[in-house]
Write a structure and sequence with these properties.
Helix content is 48%, strand content 16%. The chain is of the alpha/beta class.
Length: 260
């Protein structure tokens, strides 16, 4: 079913592992389509409460576009490649009403950095780095980086990182807010595991709608956000998890959320 990634769904967790270590998990057209398909399948699967995106090895999360594959495949329009492949992948991640954690096992460069930034949280190998290296081949960042970066780190710093393509190591990435946590590689799975344990027992519907409204927050007026909060709160007020949460609060016990 998948030739360029591994998909494992177990105990409420979907783990999507990029599996092209021979090219540092570079993004070919086939891999991009498979990531999109795997994310969409994980969203549809009602047993999945949290999604983890990672890659094989400890060197590279994703080195960006597979330029050799693109040239060998006769790529004629970079814009069409974005419209047809990269953008649908990023949209699938951002529109997924489930938490998506990036287990950034190694470097994230070019569109690989965009892929990481599209996730809701990034837990990174502290020995890794990020780089918007597009300028080195005369291009501009794409796959959503031009949207994510100024919102996360501000316009001037975003311009610097985009226009220089320099490496951002994890101490700086953490200080800038580009990653959520940076840990030793040997502690990566433990840290991810703690987050997964939380999210797979959390009120998934609530978190999904939080993500939906947060996505719209920078492009909405405060009045529009007020209305979105009200509309979505009406939806959540009719869920099992709201009733369970209130009952657990009154009974002074831990709630047993079902994600419904």
């Amino acid at each position: 079913m998948y030739e360029n990634l591994l998909l494992e769904i177990s105990d409420g967790v979907s783990t999507i592992t990029l599996n092209r270590p021979q090219v540092y998990n570079a993004l070919s057209t086939d891999l991009i389509k498979e990531i999109t398909k795997a994310v969409e399948a994980s969203v549809i699967d009602t047993s999945v409460r949290v999604i983890v995106i990672t890659a094989t090895g400890d060197k590279s999360f994703c080195s960006g576009a597979d330029l050799k594959a693109g040239m060998d495949g006769g790529l004629t329009s970079l814009g069409d490649s974005l419209r047809d492949n990269y953008n649908p992948m990023i949209k699938a991640i951002r529109n997924a009403e489930k938490p998506i954690i990036c287990r950034m096992n190694g470097i994230a460069a070019g569109a690989g950095m965009s892929l990481a930034l599209a996730c809701d949280m990034i837990i990174a190998n502290k020995d890794a780095y990020m780089s918007e290296l597009f300028v080195g081949i005369g291009l501009m960042p794409d796959a959503g980086s031009m949207f994510f970066l100024p919102r996360i780190i501000g316009m001037q710093k975003a311009f610097e990182l985009c226009s220089t393509g320099r490496k951002v190591y994890m101490d700086e990435a953490l200080a800038l807010g580009l990653v959520t946590k940076a840990v030793n590689y040997e502690n990566l799975d433990e840290t991810i595991g703690e987050l997964v344990e939380y999210y797979k027992t959390a009120p998934t519907k609530s978190i999904g709608l939080m993500k939906k409204v947060l996505n719209q927050s920078f492009n909405s007026t405060v009045e529009e956000i007020f209305e979105q909060e009200a509309q979505n709160q009406d939806i959540l007020g009719k869920t099992h998890d709201f009733a369970e949460g209130v009952m657990a609060f009154l009974q002074k016990r831990k709630p047993k959320f079902k994600g419904k």
